[in-house]
Amino acid sequence: MTAPLLQAAGLTKRFGGLVANDAIDLGVSEGQVHAVIGPNGAGKTTLLAQLNGELEPDRGTIRFAGRDITALPTATRARLGLARSFQITSVFASFSAIDNVALAVQGQERHSFRFWRDAGSDAALAEPAERALERVGLADRSHVPAAALAHGQKRQLELAMALAMRPKLLLLDEPMAGMGVEESAAMVTLLAGLKAEVPILLVEHDMDAVFALADRITVLLHGRVIASGPPAEIRRNAEVREAYLGEDAAAEYG
User: Fold this and answer.
1) Under a CB-based contact definition with an 8 Å cutoff, are residues 38 and 239 in contact?
2) Please, what is the angle between helix 151-163 and helix 97-109, to 10°?
3) Is 202 helix (H, G, I), strand (E, B) or coil?
4) Residue 54 lies in a domain
5) Which range has the worst mean pLDDT, 84-98, 139-153, 164-178, 198-212?
6) I need a surface site. Which of 60, 88, 118, 240 has the fewest CB within 10 A?
7) Is residue 86 part of a domain?
8) 3-class DSSP state for residue 234?
């Protein structure tokens, strides 16, 4: 059996007396969307921060593409192919869409940073940036300042920035946050199309999106994994119904 591309084993993180993550085991395989859900304070963001290298685990290991990356910094993990988007959109508002994506390419390729000129004017940066924008449906907005983009388009832009880094795996932190119904539906369609190209670890509160996209779902509560399995199994799990979905929501997705 092929080992998961990303594998966390026994991942534990404490903040004083608070155990934010308690011996979490989790794996993401090729061609898979693995969703992590749980109520606020369940430990989802702490888990992502450890996988991404922003936080150092107190215990446990993280392996990526067969390599132990537990002690590696965020930038090194990014160069290995681990790309993350954030719950709060993080783009340069005054830069055009293509300049934002070109800067992501620049960082991944280790080009010298020349902020006094448009990164998007450098063909070596602009061409992959244009491809990434086209992939997320923003080709016609490439020269629009990020500040002028709608909220959903900013989320698309952030995804384009992650894709421009040629990731082997995407860590997505609530990509549907703040979106309306139509924007969320468009993002679900986009992510579903990406799954065959790059596996995704998805943290998301939108249960419609989770059950539409996920091949596997891990449920956290108080920093512990209380269930992990295919969506149909999670729908039927009594502990998940009580602790997170609630009876009404569980009935809706059952």
Assistant:
1) no
2) 20
3) strand
4) yes
5) 84-98
6) 88
7) no
8) helix
Domain extent, residue 234, equals 1-81+168-254
Q: Is the alpha carbon torsion for 183, 189, 194, 200 positive or negative?
A: positive
Instruction: Residue 160: name the closest of 131, 182, 185 by CA.
Output: 131
Q: Is residue 156 pLDDT above 70, yes or no?
A: yes
Whether 4 and 74 share a structural domain: yes
Pair (177, 151) in one structural domain: no
Determine contact, residues 11/50, Cβ cutoff 8 Å.
yes
pTM higher than the cut 0.85: yes
Evaluate whether residue 20 is within a structural domain. yes
Q: Is residue 113 a contact partner of residue 106, using CB atoms and an 8 Å limit?
A: yes
Evaluate if residue 113 carries a pLDDT over 80: no
2, 106: one domain = no
With a pLDDT cut of 90, the percent of the chain lying above it is 65
Phi then psi for residue 67, to 5 deg, are -115, 140
Q: 175 burial class (0-12, 13-18, 19+ CB within 10 angstroms)?
A: buried
Are 172 and 244 found together in one domain? yes
Note the helical H segments in the chain: 44-52, 74-80, 97-109, 123-135, 151-163, 181-194, 207-213, 231-236, 238-240, 246-253
Per-residue confidence band for 244, with pLDDT thresholds at 50, 70 and 90: low
In this structure, the strands spanning 224-229 and 216-221 are antiparallel
Give the confidence band of 109 by pLDDT, cuts at 50, 70, 90.
low
Query: Number of folded domains in the chain?
Result: 2
Residue matched to tokens 């959109």: 89
pLDDT at residue 219 above 60?
yes
